[in-house]
Design goal:
Low-confidence stretches: 1-5, 424-440
Structural class: alpha/beta
Order of helices and strands: HHHHEEEHEEEHHEHEEHEHEHHEEEEHE
Strand content: 15-25%
CATH superfamily of the largest domain: P-loop containing nucleotide triphosphate hydrolases
Largest sheet: 10 strands, mixed
CATH topology of the largest domain: Rossmann fold
Radius of gyration: 26 Å
Length: 440
Amino acid sequence: MALAPTPSREHALREEVREELRKVIDLDGLAAPDGAEAERVRSVVRSLVDAANHRAAAVGEPTIPDPDGLTQRLADEILGLGPLQPLLDNPAVEEIIVNGPHRVFAIEHGRKRLTDVFFEDDAELLRIVRRAIGRLGRRLDETSPLVDARLPDGSRLNAVIPPLTSRWTHVTVRKFLLRARTLDDLVALDTLSPEAAAFLEAAVQAGLNMLISGGTGSGKTTCLNALGASIAAGDERVVTIEETGELQLESMLPDCVALQSRLSNIEGVGAFPIRSLVKNALRMRPTRIIVGEVRGAEALDMLSAMNSGHDGSMCTIHANGPRQALSKLRMYAMMADESLPAEAVTEMIAEALNLVVHLRLEPASDRRVVTSIYEVTGLEGDTVAGSDLFTWSEGALRWTGIRPRFAAQLHGGTFSWDRFEDATAPAHRELERSGRRLER
């Protein structure tokens, strides 16, 4: 009976494969190998595994029971992230968490599970991570024990090693999965109600400024992409700005420019942060600016753009609710070097924003749902006032019965308030607009 190859035997094969490949391929230059290069690597690996089996059979040694599996593992180590590559290739896996060589978790549909993936030891895990980030001009060692890098497929890899960790190499890989391209797709996924989707589409076409909020993995970017896809006018020029290219608007809109920030190189120079790109976008004659995520001083530039003729601009922010989203936006804007007073920033927010769309991941159903569409109505004293137009009630997103102040802008086209007026009024219709405020 054929026995499984021992770790030392696999290690020897691995070194043999790499030495042979170095003769025909620049392994260090395989940052993003094309199909021909990848097939070339697999062909060499396959031939070496077959040769090893033939040698073993000739001298009476145990043969490799699963040569195809071994070929795939060796190719994955050279072309990808080794044992983690099958998880990366699995479209259902959203995130990979590695706590040392023997505990690898995968998050699927919002739920975490322990996988059967493992590494021989921490040295193997560290070697694979270093090879992946080395091709991207990043490093991971005692002098730089933390790294945050974007992989060629758009996934984000974060790795931390001792002395910042107690013992093991810890790795987190977040994949970016855009499950919906349009608002209709979100309706099909039960993320939005048809009425709310029609309302948001009309709001986008009317040029209302929006902030999309939610927790990690709640579907903010997917919602932002669907909202952007609703931009209908052919004379619109849209500039998108992201840390990692997730939005697909460049392929969906006639005039769209996609910009991506860049991290510093191994010498610590060459970085282009989000704020620099927002400032540059203003020089590109956009009608709208869409920022993938606001998490710093770029919030001030985004508010300035919304207040200076770029109607219909949008961005996302991490928050637990609409009012907290507005509060965090103000905090980020006040982090800018301009050091504007809180009163000035609060006034900018009240004048710039029209809507906050909030999402969350429902733990019971593993669905990403829009739980609130919140209108910013202006200033009341020294606070930003607003009210819920749609809110989550009895397991569904329902209209509160409140018409927004910009309702007149939504008339025309295919949008009509009749579909809302004819619906049964929800129990929370009596919510008063004046009760929705952002605490200072």
